[in-house]
């Protein structure tokens, strides 16, 4: 078989230039979340197929990269349907729940987890949407109080401010408000999940569009209208008011936190508060999360309150790239270009000099001088080299 | 299906304590390799099945985690054998070669690549060997001179010294010496690959053991004996002598660099110098590499000289853990424990105080106070918290 030099469809190679920006953002994330006392964990990229298809992932379960069994177990498989025993994780929340159920005895409580890692979804590739992409989540497990929401929102807002973002809005709602509104409007309980998914499209398809969808789902026109009206008039419950107060008390400035009764968040596992961060200027969501008090219990048998917030790492990278954001320089960079006819003792001296310069914090690249040294210097200048020394 | 709380067989969950050590080592790697002018790249975890099974991976090709096709393409597959279009990468060298072939036009040359990332091998799980593990490679592409070997060895040695390792030995050999010795000893060319694999076991099975294996492969007893004798008397070629001189000239102290004619390195793709770093005290190899001038050409059609050095990240972590290495403290850590009856204005004040302390570089965890606050404080002390403030 011939070799293919492009990456697998929908996945990316990252060049040194890409990595400088990605590392800059990663370091900021580690710095800010670390200061808030979130502690990093890591789980394998590969998860049991039973967990991945356990109804926690909603639409994502249709997008799993499934991995074949190996050896004897593969031979025993009758057909393709039974030939997989694991797959690539589609998010970081499911693995975190498994991790916590497996390790809770050795973790402090409430546990404040921070994760940064790749996830995989066999989505239709399109601009800005990849099949391997980085997610960055913080979660608080074992705290049923609104302190969890407060810390998650404050930390995420602090991170975005640290990355230079301003004028963003944290929108917050509670699934309980949505449910109550639906019940009051006469929407049958078995149709509420679908009704929420339609409501979520309000800013895209408008009131008439949502109403049409609700009716198509079997909801009466009257109930649909009432639902839209009641939703518009919904008032924040006390926990939302308290979270807003708390977040403001933490004193970060440069963003708003607003109650938004139309906020739904797609994932079925949310059980209480839900929140999202929108960038005004872009009309884009850059972070989303909420409370999911039932998921860990499905692994451990013991219910554990849980609340999380996930930032869209790739989206943040895209915005910074679009803004032509420049990562601050990392100190002096010097290149020693060694001519192919250089004498041995000159090379030895150069190597020794390079070691000394590195020991005082400078970056020194010792490399072969190309025939076209001018072009070589231009390329090295582009990645931050300001000083060149040719060795003959 | 029921949910499984343990990780997939042979793969690991990393706790916050694990991650502190892993991040410490990762940061040292980035720091040292960065100072040598290596520039980081990243490739997807998933590679084309054609590349993974293209005869670059030796035994590793038997250990691939293969990924099922999706959607219509899966339905078109006749059987399991044709049902996969990609798989998880088993090393970082093959993806680097693909990356370089794909991106060379936009990269400086010689290109000094640095990679740190997970690889997957469906190996039999055993102590210290995992099915997902981290590799860390540096490679120089486009330099056919011994400057490449010199910089790779100097940088890797500098990293190990920075991590506190001492008294290690860089062993170096050249595939050309092995080939010449085999030819001089009368070993038929088609049996040399197998002969090298047996020679590689010299320190484990001794001369008699190697001889037996050589004979079993169809080599005459006389040729086998001559091969062992000639190998023992082999002399370093000029490039090895020059690399040794260069590495010493760079002035790093605390390790040896020695010619070792019995060094083989398993991978079939090596074309010239090969090298390995052994820890005297442990009798373990912690890094290995060599020159592979033919691999990139198999992707791009244009031959490109290439040389790389890979450190065993997981092995280094294991050694540091065994030595009970303590990561230096990362600054002051304070925990605010909020009583569930705390008044709102007290909470607001605590959140405000926390923000101020963070702004001067301190880590502040604001968290719910547990019923057993003594146990909670003990657990937080274990992860570095030295100051506690209870908020009522």
Structure description:
The structure is a homodimer of 392-residue chains. The first copy, chain A, has 392 residues and is an alpha/beta fold. Chain A folds into two domains: 16-322, BirA Bifunctional Protein, domain 2 (2-Layer Sandwich); 333-391, no CATH class. Helix content of chain A is 40%, strand content 21%. Chain A has 14 helices and 14 strands. The first copy, chain A, has helices at 16-35, 49-52, 71-76, 93-103, 146-162, 175-184, 192-199, 202-216, 221-233, 238-249, 297-300, 313-322, 344-359, 373-382; strands at 39-40, 46-48, 66-68, 84-88, 111-120, 132-141, 168-174, 255-259, 273-279, 284-291, 306-311, 333-338, 363-368, 387-391. In chain A, the strands form three sheets. Chain A has an eight-stranded mixed β-sheet, sandwiched between helices. Chain A is globular and about 90 Å long. Chain A starts with 15 loop residues before the first helix and ends with a strand. The mean pLDDT of chain A is 93. Chains A and B meet through helix 1, strand 1, strand 2, strand 3 and strand 4 of A and helix 1, strand 1, strand 2, strand 3 and strand 4 of B.
Overall mean pLDDT of chain A stands at: 93
Order of strands in the sheet with the most strands of chain A?
Answer: 1-5-6-11-10-9-7-8
Poorly predicted residue ranges of chain A? none
Per CATH, the class of the largest domain in chain A reads: Alpha Beta
- What radius of gyration of chain A results from the CA coordinates? 26 Å
What distance separates the N and C termini of chain A? 45 Å
Residue share in β-strands of chain A = 15-25%
Summed up, the helix count of chain A is 14
Q: Tell me which oligomeric state these chains represent.
A: homodimer
Predict the CATH topology of the largest domain in chain A: BirA Bifunctional Protein, domain 2
Number of domains of chain A: 2
CATH superfamily of the largest domain in chain A: Bira Bifunctional Protein, Domain 2
Please summarize the sheet with the most strands of chain A: 8 strands, mixed
CATH architecture of the largest domain in chain A: 2-Layer Sandwich
Structural class of chain A: alpha/beta
Largest interface: A-B, 115 and 115 residues
Q: How many strand units of chain A?
A: 14
Order of helices and strands of chain A: HEEHEHEHEEHEHHHHHEEEHEHEHEHE
